[in-house]
Write a structure and sequence with these properties.
Two copies of one chain form a homodimer. The first copy, chain A, is α/β, with parallel strands linked by helices. Chain A has helices spanning 3-10, 36-39, 43-50, 68-75, 87-94, 128-141, 196-212, 236-240, 251-259, 271-281, 294-300, 304-321, 368-371, 384-391; strands at residues 18-23, 53-58, 103-114, 117-120, 149-154, 159-165, 221-229, 244-247, 263-265, 287-292, 328-332, 349-355, 377-380. In chain A, the strands form two sheets. An eight-stranded mixed sheet of chain A has the order 9-8-10-1-11-12-2-13, with helices on both faces. In chain A, a hairpin with a 4-residue loop joins strand 5 and strand 6. Chain A binds chain B through residues 1-3, 6, 10, 357, 359-362, 373-379, 383, 385-391, 395-400, and chain B through 29-30, 33, 35, 56, 60-70, 80-81, 84-85, 87, 90-91, 338, 340-341, 343-348, 368-369, 372-373, 377-378.
């Protein structure tokens, strides 16, 4: 019996509200002895820490640096080792492409074909504006087949997402990409008998695309890799009997929230806007996932100061959010993005939980170091969900 | 390879003695900043904390509120997700009904049948004294069939436990209970072919009971739900080579101990009696599970002061117990029952281990907050057993 079965059996609908604040990439590494979070002036977060219980989470397990997909899945109670989202679906979500249950998505490159060989897998990193034009040209030229729709969505430079919509398409397909230059283009192969139909359609599409593009060198063909269907993942409503909403600005997080059945609410990139949206919709949902991206972006850029500022910006927004008085408030991150590391890292995430039923750890500030001393201990992020549900009174007793 | 296999392979018989003191529902929540345990004057527990190592346990995992069954199974080293005790067996244990390996037990209700429909599933919550009379009447009227014995044990109001004794009875049976009023009574159905025999016997019994009761309205029929056999659970002797004893007053805990093969010793409800019984039997066993109920009862009643008093009562009993000098002494609880929550909760349990081989955490008091700082960390309660066995020198090295 695993957590999903337990959740389905024990969860109950209540009036209580959970707010999960995710400061993307919050955790850091010390510069001159202090991390970004320790450097930032955060009187509101510090006060919250003194009113709740703290801990540290690992997105997957110790030492594993997660992508945004697994890191977020864990926070929502999904085992990130069980649910691995395909590259195609993440690229689609990240590009703001809507993906439904009958869609098959895949990452694409414009590439250069010469004398029957792929000589440049990125078509000279063609300008994004050219990419957009070519996608439009292909979209208007592709022959519609009975019940099958194919659409390309331009990305940056040579990248695009292709979406095929039809019933019964399987994503058990090999990449239509020779991976190395100097090789001939290759077709996709069905990896299971049920994928034969999809393979035929995709290989026809590849031929047609090459025909349409034949005079557009260097972008005179396309490569496709990472075929993905809408993943077979249960919704948060089905697992937890929640009516959840996401307040997020970036396509990737909005798309992921949608995958899990959340209502996705619009918001800008600034922290100040988050509480406005929460206030407006607080009556409509019982679970709010609120995503703040600037901390991660600054960390990725290796900009320690900007990450400190982003944390302070978030902290300043809290006095408007707290009076909305959720029954359970969690502040944490999906993964660490230390400015000194310039990317996602494996370091654990600060985790702070405030509710009427939380024990008080007596900590006086919110930081990686203080969280390491908190009573919640160190745990895999997928246990955050049972913990939040329990504090919200949304889980019945297990066993008699 | 799981813990049970490891335990069987590595455990050895020794002269050393383990005493596991379970203060039921010990963990709490703060009132005016202090939990019940922090409020109580506990000089003896505090002194023990300074002589041992501390930690916090989760009965199942973070966020899960356990019933008494899973909470205790964990403490004895059984995975509570693997061994789920049926409602019938727990009701039987809680009622003090002895359950053997050939017994099938089930929860029963007296109910009211009118014009072919169950119109009251609780027979007007008939007086317990009436219940007792009806159970006696049924017990004396039921026809004994070859090798099959059926016996009813009255509970409170409309509730009873029925026990069927025969070889080869399966508990894979549907409830003989329409669950809602205004519906006709239903028979039990065999959910697997092996349960056919049990289904036939039970449905005959239902008919006979209705016949015996036909003039006893409102209690003129019975409903049965939660058929359970003695669970297929290995004994502590078979896993750990222990000769374990339980010192417990309440039927539920005595019954559970019996399930695991413990010798169950009699004791009253007061803490002072526990050490008397332990002293008398210290030479007979190498593992003692000692259960103190008052902390939980006070918590369930929401009586903060009474829970504080119960903790202090227990603390005062320690000076008589400690000179018995067990090699490993653990003080913990099965689950938290905060007075402010008035029920079992998911908050982790304080855990204190004293032995010659324990590291010293240098803590000066025994409380939830101090335990959060202890060197044992936060762990699932099922790891308490390997820890106790190790400190008692009862586990060999794993691997070469």
């Amino acid at each position: 019996m695993n957590w999903e079965d337990i959740a389905k059996e024990l969860s109950i609908e209540t009036e209580t509200k959970i707010v999960l604040l995710v400061l993307d990439g919050l955790g850091g590494l010390p510069r001159d002895g202090k991390t970004e979070l320790e450097t930032a002036r955060t009187p509101n977060l510090d006060r919250l820490a003194s009113k709740g219980a703290c801990g540290l989470t690992d997105a997957v397990f110790r030492g594993i640096t997660p992508g945004s997909g697994p890191a977020h899945l864990g926070l929502f109670g999904y085992d990130p080792l069980q649910y691995q989202l395909g590259r195609g679906i993440l690229e689609a979500l990240g590009s703001g492409v809507e993906v439904g249950r009958n869609d098959l998505v895949v990452r694409g490159n414009f590439a250069t074909l010469r004398d029957g060989l792929i000589v440049d897998r990125r078509a000279g990193r063609l300008p994004t504006i050219e990419n957009e034009k070519l996608c439009e040209k292909l979209n208007s030229s592709l022959i519609k087949r009975g019940g099958i729709e194919i659409r390309l969505y331009p990305g940056k430079e040579h990248r695009f997402v292709a979406k095929l919509t039809a019933e019964g398409l399987s994503d058990c397909l090999s990449d239509a990409d020779p991976q190395k230059e100097g090789r001939p283009p290759i077709q996709t192969l069905a990896l299971v008998p049920e994928a034969e139909l999809a393979a035929v359609i995709i290989n026809q599409f590849l031929d047609e695309a090459a025909e349409v593009l034949k005079d557009s060198a260097p972008a005179n063909t396309i490569l496709l890799r990472g075929f993905s269907k809408f993943p077979a993942i249960p919704t948060m409503a089905s697992l937890y009997k929640l009516n959840p909403a996401a307040i997020a600005n970036y396509p990737m997080y909005r798309g992921l929230a949608k995958l899990l059945g959340m209502t996705v609410l619009d918001v800008g990139p600034d922290a100040s806007a988050l509480s406005d949206v929460l206030e407006k919709h607080i009556g409509d949902h019982d679970f709010f996932y609120i995503h703040f991206k600037k901390t991660d972006s600054a960390g990725e850029d290796g900009d320690f100061e900007r990450k400190v500022s982003a944390i302070e910006e978030f902290d300043r927004s809290l006095p408007r959010l707290l009076p909305l008085n959720p029954d359970v408030l969690v502040v944490t991150s999906d993964h660490s993005t230390p400015a000194l590391w310039k990317g996602h890292s494996w370091h654990p995430n600060p985790f702070l939980l405030v509710s009427k039923t939380s024990r008080l750890d007596g900590l006086t500030s919110f930081s990686e170091k203080e969280c390491a001393r908190g009573s919640l201990g160190r745990f895999e992020a997928r246990f955050a969900m049972p913990l939040m549900l329990a504090h919200a009174g949304k889980l019945k007793k297990f066993g008699a």
